[in-house]
Records
---
Amino acid sequence: MSRPPIDLRSDTVTRPTPAMRRAMAEAPVGDDVYREDPTVNALEARAAAWLGKESALFTPSGTMANQIAVGVHCRPGDELICAATSHVYVWEAGGIARLWGVTPRTFPGDGGLLTLAEIEDAVRPPDDPHTPNTRLVTLENTHNRGGGRVHPIAEVLAIAAWARDRGLALHLDGARLVNAVVASGVPAERWAEPFDTVSICFSKGLGAPVGSALAGSAETIAGARRLRKLLGGGMRQAGAIAAAALHALDNHVERIAEDHANARILAEAFAAAPGLALEFPTETNLVWATVDPELGTAADVAAVLKARGVLVSALGGQTLRACTHLDVSREDAERAAAEIRAIDPEAVAGRSRSL
């Protein structure tokens, strides 16, 4: 009997553990739009406390949480500052402009990690009728397209102080903030402290099947709740999925260190494989690699690995990403690493010629 493929495409592919399924099945529920779901209420209180904020809102997705944050901080005609490779700009279907009429102003950053030096002159003159109103700064930690690296706390604090001095709001896309917490040893509330709003995702490294949260002041989250309803995110007996997130917060935080260790095994393999090179140092659970055009394309390499039982993502003509998670064991990582090291340039070239 053949073994199932090792799925390294994303940390969103995890399946609930048996213990998580039991928690979901046994969760007390109510109508969350009426604020009567005890499990959702418990999750929102737990998420707010973990992030050191007054209040939190359970949302179906990280994209919705981020977009709600843009909506509560900005008005049509405003401008937000973000990295050119940030999730809120690249991977949220143009919601910044389409939903809120907000203009993104992007900067390359240090491999996607914004620095104060490049944005310190970015605020538009408030009395100039020709320009949008600079209103919001968004950071992403860890930064997905920056190799899953942790945004250095000193740089985060410097940007936050600069933004505060200029009256700007701050949002943290913390979809993988738990990875930053585990990798850095800096508590979640310390990472979240400088920001007006923070989003976290339960369905990535934490391994829940669905859901995110947006945290901030009680006043901000009250406004966010209204926008969640506007976007169709008002859920009813959502405790069945909120229970999975609560279980993850109770049981899956510390084990994320295993994902980071497994990612380093993969990173060593990508660095050693013919025609492949690491694009960034591997700090957490994401491994980004580039494919030498002489070897082929990222899609060619991904297809060859798929045939060998390893699934990775081709996220650009010459760019691959592999992601470790709850469903990838140490044995899986070592087996995948062996397949990566054994990539046959002739097999890649043969696939390229057949297309």
Note: The chain has a mean pLDDT of 96.
---
Amino acid sequence: MLEKISEDGLIAILGHELGHFKHRDILRNIAISGCILFLIFAIMGMFFKSICLYIGLQPIHGNILILAILMLPVLSFLFMPIQSYFSRKAEYKADEFGASCVSNKALSEALIRLVNENKAFPYSHPAYIFFYYSHPPLLDRLEALGGFNDRN
């Protein structure tokens, strides 16, 4: 990465990561994850004994645990868009902070190089983004940065 990205680009990327620290994104993500886990366990606590009885299993701890292991991916998938939404918003703020360290152009060029290096597709369908993307697609990030217009 050091060979492919300019010094200004590296400073902009470092600024982006420091933007996460400045905006307390890590603490916010931990709090959101904790709330989501609480909701998932609350749902499990309210319904799993009934589900065990409905499908003909004894509501003992082992059966409830097996059912929880089978249902956790489904419940996690349902809550994933909430966490991804907040993560994408935080990325835009961190991009803004990173660009303020050097320039919009430096961060834009660095992001393009990173996407090219990772062979990532720069855009996806909005429904796919809604469920799976924790970071905004490259084209959306570049648009938020003003394309290649240097505002600084």
Note: The CA atoms of residues 39 and 132 lie 20 Å apart.
